[in-house]
Amino acid sequence: xxxxxxRRPVTIREVAAAAGVSPKTVSNVVNAYVHVHxxxxxRVQGVIDALGYRPSAVGRQLRSGRTGMxxxxxxxxxxxxxxxxxxxxxxxxxxxxxxLVVEQxxxxxxxxxxxxxxxxxxxxDGLLLSALEMPDEELAAPHPDTPIVLIGEHGGSDLPVDRxxxxxxxxxxxxxDHLVSCGRSRVAFLGDKAPVHNSARLRMAGYRAALDxxxxxxxxxxxxxxxxxxxxxxxxxxxxxxxxRPDVDAVFAANDELALGALAALRxxxxxxxxxxxxxxVDDVGEARFSWPALTTVAIDRAFVAxxxxxxxxxxxxxxxxxxxQLQTPxxxxxxxxxxVTARV
Length: 345
Prior knowledge:
This protein folds into three domains: 12-64, 434 Repressor (Amino-terminal Domain) (Orthogonal Bundle); 69-166 and 301-330, Response regulator (Rossmann fold), CATH 3.40.50; 168-300, Rossmann fold (3-Layer(aba) Sandwich), CATH 3.40.50. Helices cover 41% and strands 14% of the residues. It has helices at 12-19, 23-30, 38-51, 57-64, 80-95, 109-116, 136-139, 168-181, 198-213, 231-244, 256-268, 302-318, and strands at 69-74, 99-104, 126-129, 148-151, 162-165, 187-190, 250-253, 278-283, 296-300, 326-328, 331-334. The strands form two sheets. The chain has a six-stranded parallel sheet, sandwiched between helices. Strand 1 (69-74), helix 5 and strand 2 form a beta-alpha-beta unit. The termini are far apart. 40% of the residues are buried.
């Protein structure tokens, strides 16, 4: 019995003819170049999908000198914020026909240097980097082999780099303003670290600014040190806080993981939330809606971070001469049961 004939691969010229465009336009769509009209991109992509066109990966790499891969380097892939961010970045990469590689730096300087230098993601065309330790001069250094887009607050605001940042001081101020508006006056801050990183420093600054605006004095006994920003750290810090300041009536946690740990410690201590102690976190991770009580938090728009960071990277790859661009991520207060608008019972 003879085997069925092998199907001939669809050519780029056949796609172009069916879509009514030039082969160059098809190539631009396949390579995710930005200078293609959205309607044209949709029409060409529809023909590509319908005909089952598959560009030659080897040929494309030889022609462009690129692999079609980008990398995302974050401190921890197990942290809910970064796990969800990676999910959004992967979706954005897939829409552009790119493959995403995710690397964990554990917030260590040498690991951040390795990925910035193209190791171990040396096959990536560009890098999205959430740094915690790299000094400004290294972040601002040219990276011609692997263009970098920074994500987050680390580094000076005037660095000549592409970046999608977060107004951490503004985030903190929004959270603490809400707690004060709920009638709280002894507001603790969870997230102070030694050594401090930019996120902690800026959220502390926003916390203090909100206290000042409300006429409340800063009190260091309401700011226990945290080793890190995990649930366990939030639990330990809250136990210490309750021992030092049993009169605390509100907790602002620098992220939701700390806040979830705080909720557990308050529950174990028999303290009612929000009746005795109101709690607000940051990030709006998935677990925040399902905690008990449901966590009030400041939501960071991770979909925006992912979309804009990938856009900055792909346009930088297409035009290395572009000036540095700086974008800021939207955020909003999500009020739930741990700090409702109504005053405490």
